[in-house]
Every structure is written in structure tokens, then in C-alpha cells.
């Protein structure tokens, strides 16, 4: 069997480990060859972020990134691909040229297209060879803010859902959306590498050393992208209400954090390597998942919650739909005052969850289980 996967990603391979990195590394270990297509930039992208100019020099090129995984830097594309059909079709034609060249080089005649983007609906008829399709729906794409047409993105998603051989949904809300498109989604939530985050003496020692370097008695921590779906106002209110606690935010800053940055008990570290996260979270007394409650986040299945649980942390989260079934292992807060009171309860010991409950949820949601099931389904698809 020619086990080859082309993954059209929504982020670059290098950087933060998202769902596709976890899944594809596991599939590569199971014998699949992977071509990962980085997220393209548009002609206008460098106007907002000049560092993206480097992608003009690397477009159309590919290189081996890890054993079994090759990464393609796609061509620069036209803007407004999520608004206008003409832009997306033109962009997908350019992307198809780059992918088809890689398929020819790899002699991949039969393969799986693993897409996380509904825009690939216009890519499908342009690809060479015998292509089977996995659509991995991780977000409500039409609910994102920015330069998108909700109606157009919805139409793209309807088409990719109908044309896919396998459809994954990371949350029940997304599954409901895909069923409305006449799809038959398979619920495949996010997961955690349990052993990577589980507590060891070394991780705890390094975590306590980091906590000491912060000169903090109590650390309330968050790991993840700090974007507009994170309730930064609630976090700022917590820091203002409890100046004796140190709030540590680990991850790329993708939204305005001016209010947080000016508070003396807030530390914004920026992104950290995935290898360092297990000992960093061991410096936390509490792990936070402070998503805003809106149309977009109703569909989110947050990886960080599984990671906190695997690390043995008490977790305080906003009551997102996907977290409600895990209520026995979590504490919920909707406002800064509720969040502050919950942290107080964890610190004084009045709010506790049984360690066995946290551990069971983490192990039931391991990436190993997700990867094994995906591997089985894809092999059956190519038979």
C-alpha cells in the first residue's frame, strides 16, 4: 500500500504544535509518508508583518523537516480568498501546481488529501492521481472575524463536506453543523500526549525553579495563543482583584494585551518550545482556559485542558459547551470575580478534583488513541 498523505494546513509546520502536528507525527511513525503544505501568505501579508517577506524567497520549495515528513512552502497567493470565489479558485490553481509537482517527485499515484480548510473544495478537481479526501473540521470557519464572507465560507464547507470520504469533527457543535450539510462526521476530539505532560521529579523541580525566578507565591497560568477568542478582560480583572497572585501567559500574542501588560503581577512570556511546556506548567498552581463564550468558541475543543489535566493541575475554565461533560474534573467561572474566587478556592484547598478523575480523562483522550483510529480508517480508505 502506498501510504501517502498531503496535508493542507492552516498554520506553518514549524512553531506551535497544533492538532495536525500531533496527528501527522503519529501517522509518520506508523509508516505514512507526509507532505505538509504550510499556510500561504498573500501579496498583502507583509504589509501587516514584514517578517513574512521571507516567504517570497521560499515559495514553491519543499524540504524534509522530520523523518517521513516533507514540508512545502506554497506560492504567494491573492488576498480575499475567503471572500471572493475568483480569488480562491486562482489561489487553489497555484497551490495545485505546487502539490502536483511534489506528487510527481514522490511518485505518489494514490494518496489521501488531509485538509483542515474548506477552501480546498476548489483544490480537489485540480489534483493529479487517485485522491481520497479527509476533511478535519477543527473550527467553525464561518464564525471567524476578519476579511471573510460567511456565506461563501459556508458554501465551501458544504462542498468539501459532501466531497470528502471521511469527515472528522473535533466537537459535537461542529458535527451538528456538518450533518446539516448532509455529511456524516466522525467525532474526533483533540488529545494529549499523556506521558509528555505527566508529573516527574525533574519536571516539578524545573517548574519550581521557574516559579522562584518569577518571585511568585501563587502562579495562575495559561498556555496557548492569546487571540481575540481569549477573554483578556477577565484575566486582567483577575490580576487587578488579586495582586498577590502572579498571572503567567505563555504563547504567541495575537491580539491587544495592553491592559494586561501594564499590570505588575502579569508576565507575558511569548511562545515557548513544546518540549518546555511540561515543566513550565508544573510552576502553575492553577491552569486556565479562559475562552470568551460566543459562536466561535462554542465549537472549540481546547487542547490545553487535556494537557493541564495530564499535568495534574486544577483547571478553571469558562463553561464552554465542549467542557461541560468534563465538569467533574474542572471548575467553571464566567467573570473575573468568579475566576478570582475559584483561584482562592484552589489555593486554600476548598476546591479540589480527585487526581484519578483528571488522569482518566487525560488517558481517555490521548493522541495515541486518536492516531491509532485515524491510521486504521485511512488504511481502510486506500484498500
Overview of this structure, please?
The chain starts with a strand and ends with a helix. It has two domains: 4-190 and 366-382, 3-Layer(aba) Sandwich (Rossmann fold), CATH 3.40.50.2000; 194-364, Glycogen Phosphorylase B (Rossmann fold), CATH 3.40.50.2000. The strands form two sheets. Strands 3-4-2-1-5-6-7-8 form an eight-stranded mixed beta sheet, sandwiched between helices. Strands 11-10-9-12-13-14 form a six-stranded parallel beta sheet, with helices on both faces. The model has no long low-confidence stretch (mean pLDDT 95). It has 15 helices and 14 strands. 38% of the residues lie in helices and 17% in strands. β7 (166-169), α6 and β8 (186-187) form a beta-alpha-beta unit. By secondary structure, it is of the alpha/beta class. It is globular, with a radius of gyration of 21 Å.
What general outline do the C-alpha atoms trace?
globular
**What is the radius of gyration computed over CA atoms, rounded to a whole number of angstroms?**
21 Å
User: What is the number of domains?
Assistant: 2
- Mean pLDDT, to the nearest integer, reads 95
CATH superfamily of the largest domain, called what? Glycogen Phosphorylase B
Under the CATH scheme, the architecture of the largest domain is 3-Layer(aba) Sandwich
Short summary:
With 383 residues, this protein is an alpha/beta fold. It folds into 2 domains: 4-190 and 366-382, Rossmann fold (3-Layer(aba) Sandwich), CATH 3.40.50.2000; 194-364, 3-Layer(aba) Sandwich (Rossmann fold). It is 38% helix and 17% strand.
Secondary structure topology:
Elements (H helix, E strand, L loop, with lengths): L3 E5 L10 H11 L3 E5 L7 H4 L5 H5 L2 E6 L2 E5 L11 H22 L3 E6 L14 E8 L12 H14 L2 E4 L2 H8 L6 E2 L6 H4 L3 H13 L5 E5 L8 H10 L4 E5 L7 H4 L4 E5 L6 H5 L4 E4 L13 H8 L4 E3 L13 E2 L3 H13 L6 H10 L2 H16 L1
Parallel strand pairs: 1-2, 1-5, 2-4, 5-6, 6-7, 7-8, 9-10, 9-12, 10-11, 12-13, 13-14
Antiparallel strand pairs: 3-4
